[in-house]
Each structure stands twice: as structure tokens, then as C-alpha cells.
Amino acid sequence: MAALRPLMLGYLRDDLVDDPAGWVTVLTDAAAAAGFDLGEVFHERATDSGPIPPQFLALLDALRRTDAHVVAIPEGHLAGHAVPEGCLVNRLRDGADTRIHEVRVGAPSGKSLSEPVRG
């Protein structure tokens, strides 16, 4: 029986990408490269939906319910909300004991698509 890998959740702003489904694949690959299984990916559809984005709040709730402590987020996807990016990062780190793996597009072949950059 294969050992279970730890769980990583995802967060994606659909307004910043042309192919959200393709990005789920990128996040899945990044999670696997870092030794995780990707669980649910929370898709933020609009950035003007209130002070704190609703799918970000759903992500926080899921982090508290599961044993996940890492989130895969494409580079720049926490920016551009009504709440400053630093506040969202602090909310993940302090409110849900979470590290962020910021996924960068076009990582050179053979290198990890993600690296822990915050928390």
C-alpha cells in the first residue's frame, strides 16, 4: 500500500487566467513535485465581491477542517483584492497555520514548479 502524502489545497483567481482547468493541472503538478496531493482548488471568480474574497474565506474554513497546512497559489493571485495582499497572507499564516507555495509559470525543466515563499 502506498503511503499517503500530505494534503495541499489550492487558490486560483479565474479572472487572471485564460484556462482555469489548465491551471488546476499546473497546481496539481506543483503539489506532486513538492510531495503533496492537491485537494480542493478554490476558484475566485471576481475581485469586487466584498472586502475579503468569498472563496478565500472558504479556503480558510477548509484549512481549519482538514489537516492541510499548505496552499498552492499562482504568483500574483493574492494581489488586486480590496484587502491588501499582506493581510491575506497573514490571515493564512496566522489564522490557519498555513504556508504558501507560490507557483510560478515557466519554471525550467527539472526544477520544482513551486517553492515555499511565505510563512
Write out key terms for the chains shown.
119 residues, alpha/beta, Rossmann fold, five-stranded mixed β-sheet, 3 helices, 5 strands, 32% helix, disordered C terminus
Question: Strand order, biggest sheet?
Answer: 2-1-3-4-5
Please state the overall shape, judged from the principal axes of the Cα atoms. Answer: globular
Quaternary structure state of the chains depicted: single chain
What gap, in angstroms, lies between the N and C termini? Answer: 33 Å
* CATH level 4 superfamily: Resolvase, N-terminal catalytic domain
Query: What is the CATH class?
Result: Alpha Beta
Low-confidence stretches: 107-119
What's the helix count? 3
The mean pLDDT is 78
Tell how many strands the DSSP assignment holds: 5
Describe this structure in words.
The chain has one domain (7-110): 3-Layer(aba) Sandwich (Rossmann fold). It contains 3 helices and 5 strands. The protein has helices spanning 20-33, 54-65, 85-96; strands at 7-13, 37-44, 70-74, 99-103, 114-118. Strands 2-1-3-4-5 form a 5-stranded mixed β-sheet, with helices on both faces. Helix 1 (20-33) links the parallel strand 1 (7-13) and strand 2. The longest helix has 14 residues, at 20-33.
